[in-house]
Specification:
single chain, alpha+beta, Thiol Ester Dehydrase, Chain A, six-stranded antiparallel sheet, 3 helices, 6 strands
Length: 152
């Protein structure tokens, strides 16, 4: 939305504590992809990425498919298969692609891969299309300037 600054943990450059993921379109499957490294501060098991951060990366990969299609949608449900430990400080790739659409529900899939193509984690998600203007009108009013600063 024009004039709205976001501080998304997954992708916003303005979030100094975030992952700063930057996705590009993959025209062959109407999906997205991103190369990235996860810094040590997101460690779970020694030397490896925390499971919640893996979930965030997959949510971003699948969610960016909506933006690719010009749809604003919120995550309704996600399932994740943690196939192998995801190493820290190693160049990796995240991909997301559309599976199907059923009314306002957009079904997507995503993967985190090593650069040799090994799938480390896989996810499926359902995203529900919304009207962002209506959402901010309805829920944005609940945030006062004081509560916004605490959430930052």
């Amino acid at each position: 939305m024009p004039g709205v600054t976001h501080h998304c943990f997954g992708c916003a450059p303005e979030n100094r504590h975030g992952l700063h993921l930057r996705f590009q379109e993959t025209p062959h499957n109407a999906g997205v992809e991103c190369e990235f490294r996860v810094p040590r501060r997101f460690e779970g098991p020694p030397g490896h990425v925390h499971g919640g951060v893996i979930a965030t990366i997959l949510d971003e990969a699948m969610g960016k498919v909506n933006r690719q299609k010009g749809v604003v949608a919120l995550t309704r449900n996600m399932s994740i298969d943690y196939l192998q430990p995801v190493p820290l400080a190693t160049k990796l790739r995240a991909v997301g692609w559309p599976v199907k659409v059923d009314g306002r529900k957009h079904f997507h899939a995503g993967e985190i891969l090593a650069l040799d193509g090994t799938v480390l984690a896989r996810g499926e998600g359902i995203f529900v299309a919304i009207d962002p203007v209506e959402m901010f009108r309805k829920y944005g009013q609940r945030l006062t300037p004081k509560s916004r600063s605490r959430r930052s």
